[in-house]
Design a protein that fits this description.
By secondary structure, the protein is an alpha/beta fold. It has 7 helices and 20 strands. The termini are far apart.
């Protein structure tokens, strides 16, 4: 199944009239999704056609340099809300650990690389945080089915080398009972970020225990695994990503799992524009997941800078939480910061709302060849999560 040939119908939002916009200074901000990349391999080594944007620069980032403000459309935004009241109590540091799930586990890591199992394939990818020596002998690593080579930067392009035999572009995977497609992309990613398993499991538990259909908003939803997990558990999901390719891949995943009847709205839209419109409409959600990029570009050239625009994004997300909300989850990938930076921002944002803010790191623990032998922990992302109590 070739991704480039897959046609979908994408739900988009109608423009909002000027009179509905709140007053505020104009700023250039936008958000980019986590697009799919890739082309069908014709030989043992291939470099997929670089259409769209890399999946992670951090997540959804753009490999090209960010355009000047004069080169992109201005996006009218409302000012930050002045919050009062007590800051929520804190739980720090919280380390959310996974040893894998379903068809994924981390076999070994070291010397700037990681060896992972994705379904039937053993894959080697660069990993800058693996500073220690490899734990398993060389002959284990040499049996890899696919090796990413080329630029070692997170936003760098490269190619996949297949030492054993040429592999197809996609292959089936399963996590938390959800079937989806893995895909070799030119930006090293394969369509799922397994460090998020702990958040997806939490969402699944919240939805199943709620006793009512929860409304879930998944911003920067990428290939839709989190959205499918939530919807399969009984939630009504709104999935937002700026990349048509990512939305297409997500719809492929929905069809692969025969989950077409699940209540999911697939929105191909700039995330900041979408949430501002939702705020004006008075729409509310019980759980919000947001995994914004460090740098990114929206579908119309909007530019996003995490450290500049994250405060407003969280501020709007707070307004979108329902009175009986179950949580607001923020993850931040590949940023040079302490988790305290997003932790204190989350506490300030949630002033007067009560609840608790818990923050720390997401880690994946090595599990060996058998997937059951615990080893070293590999840090992957920072996170901060507000919960009502």
């Amino acid at each position: 199944m070739l991704f480039a040939a897959f046609c979908i119908e994408i739900e988009t939002e109608k423009p909002v009239k000027n009179k509905e916009r709140r007053p505020g200074p104009k700023r250039t901000a936008g958000t980019a999704g986590k697009p799919a990349q890739g082309g069908a391999p014709k030989q043992k080594s291939f470099s997929p056609r670089p259409e769209g944007r890399p999946a992670r620069t951090a997540p959804g980032g753009e490999s090209r340099s960010v355009a000047r403000s004069s080169e992109v459309p201005e996006v009218e935004q409302r000012p930050l809300t002045v919050r009062t009241g007590e800051r929520p109590p804190e739980r720090v540091p919280v380390i959310l650990e996974s040893t894998g799930a379903g068809d994924f586990h981390l076999i070994d890591s070291g010397n700037g690389e990681k060896l992972e199992q994705y379904g039937p394939y053993r894959i080697v990818r660069p990993e800058a945080q693996a500073l220690w020596p490899k734990g398993l002998p060389a002959h284990v690593w040499e049996k890899a089915d696919a090796i990413f080579t080329g630029d070692t930067d997170e936003d760098g392009m490269g190619r996949w080398r297949f030492p054993r035999e040429a592999l197809g572009e996609t292959w089936p995977l399963s996590l938390l009972g959800i079937d989806f497609l893995g895909r070799f992309t030119s930006f090293r990613h394969v369509g799922v970020f397994p460090e998020q398993i702990v958040h997806w499991s939490w969402v699944k538990q919240q939805v199943e225990a709620a006793g009512r259909p929860l409304k879930v908003l998944n911003l920067f939803g990428y290939t839709g695994v989190a959205s499918l997990v939530a919807a399969a558990a009984g939630a009504e999901v709104t999935h937002v990503d700026a990349s048509k390719k990512a939305i297409g891949w997500a719809r492929e995943n929905q069809s692969l799992g025969r989950l077409d009847k699940l209540p999911i709205r697939w929105i191909c839209e700039d995330a900041m524009k979408f949430i501002q419109r939702e705020e004006r409409r008075g729409n509310r959600y019980d759980i919000i997941l947001t995994d914004p990029p460090k740098f990114g570009r929206g579908p119309n050239g909007e530019v996003w800078h995490l450290f500049e625009h994250l405060p407003l994004m969280l501020d709007i997300c707070r307004e979108l939480l329902s009175p009986k909300a179950h949580g607001l989850v923020l993850t931040a990938y590949s940023i040079r910061a302490s988790f305290y930076s997003i932790h204190e921002l989350m506490r300030e944002t949630m002033r007067g709302r009560g609840g608790v803010v818990e923050s720390g790191e997401l880690v994946i623990r090595e599990a060996g060849l058998d997937g059951k032998t615990p080893g070293r922990a590999l840090s992957t992302s920072l996170f901060s999560r507000w919960v009502p109590k």
